[in-house]
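Standup notes, structure subgroup. Blocker cleared on the 2-acetamido-2-deoxy-beta-D-glucopyranose input:
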Amino acid sequence: MRVISALAILISVLTALVNLYIYTYPSLNAENCSWKHQKHQKHSYLEDVFEQYAHTKKGYSKASNGANSTSEVADIRLLAIGDPQINGNWPSTKYIKRLDNYGNDYYLGHIYQVMKRRLQPSHVAVMGDLFSSQWISDSEYYNRTRRFITRLFPGPEEYTAYNLDFVNKHEDVDWVSHMHWFQKTLEEGGFKGPDQYDFQNIYDWTEHQLADEPLFINLTGNHDIGYGDTTYQHMTRFRRLFGKDNYWIEYGAGTDHAWRIVVLNSLALDGPSAQPEFLDYTWQFVETLRERPFEGSTILLTHIPFYKREGLCRDGPFSELYTPENAVGAYAIGKLKSENHLQYETSQRVLSAVFTSGKPGIVMTGHDHEGCENYYNLSPEGEWYASKEVEADVHIKEITVRAIMGEFGGNTGIMTGHFDEDAKQWEFDYTLCPFIVQHVWWAAQIGLLLSVLLVSGALLF
Ligand SMILES: *[C@@H]1O[C@H](CO)[C@@H](O)[C@H](O)[C@H]1NC(C)=O
Ligand SMILES: *[C@@H]1O[C@H](CO)[C@@H](O)[C@H](O)[C@H]1NC(C)=O
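Run returned:
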């Protein structure tokens, strides 16, 4: 009896501590886990926890700053989620791995829930590689989408119903109709110009406009749609469930504090591609950006990082094509199989087309999992080159967001844009908020179960 009681107390205390940790972990690192200008300077852990749970952050919404802000213009508060890359179960998947996949969904969901509650982001961007493989059936794609919507990034019904209804219908995606629409639009020049890409002042994709819901942006990753092996089936289901692959959203265009988000499908820039029209279309998007200079700051969101020399990040320059031995189907032979960076020429063209205003800007990418930060400096000869330091007047920071996956520590990227009223320009700031490997989250769940069993045992006997 004594032993059970003692054990019940011990396990309960440990469980309480681990649970306290997993719900308040950002307070241990408040400096990196807060928006730049909402930072509670030099707060201790306890003060930060108190701040989070005892106060409600009134007046702090998507289009306005909370109290004690130094700027009239609302800060940009973008929470970046690097490559979640969720796995699926196959008939051959071992039971323990199935449990691991199941727990992983809730582990990622826990991080999102804690960070969303703490930070109330205006925007959330998943940096591509939502799922772990482009070679899955529509049925599996829908099942992972359901997990994505209900476990990883749950939102109110008003926001999820449109996709959940579609996923639950579980019919093969109608890529043939989509292909006809796409080819017709391409032929008619419909992708040369803003019509297909232009959004203005969007804080919500729906008409519901709930104040606490961030604008959710999904990027294409190679594991979502492939590289040169991308098919209409890939593109159709991604666009239906996760939105367009190329577009911009402009905010306050024409004012002195104009800024925009540009979302770019970097999987369809370098070929060769089995469907070369995807490359034509994406280059038409880049060309449209070049021909429509934007007087403001740009946040460019894209999956694949820009070209950089070896040694700046974990991944150096690398690309390969499918061979007859490793091609997924004959159609893919000789097409782009993978790359670490965009090619040199592509990088020059895209950076020059997007960052024309000379104003501050930032690039955010995913893909390499490790995370990395560099500057692209514009040389007097007009070449963009990467380095760890600012070396030219015109320079753009590139953030490669570290993956949220447990094996990389459950990190989320916190990007603040703040309009400096004196300098009349935007400044961008990025920090990484680390959590911990998924096992600690598991310990919190198992501890709860054990505590309940042991306490019941101690009471019963
Ligand atoms: C997706 O889920 C449905 C319903 O749970 C199931 O019948 C179907 O077999 C799943 N698809 C795959 C590919 O496992
Ligand atoms: C991105 O995915 C989320 C979650 O599934 C969804 O709510 C949102 O509408 C998607 N974004 C777009 C632009 O479709």
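Discussed briefly. The pocket of 2-acetamido-2-deoxy-beta-D-glucopyranose (ligand 1) is lined by residues 137, 139-140, 143 (CB under 6 Å).
Next: hand off to the docking folks.
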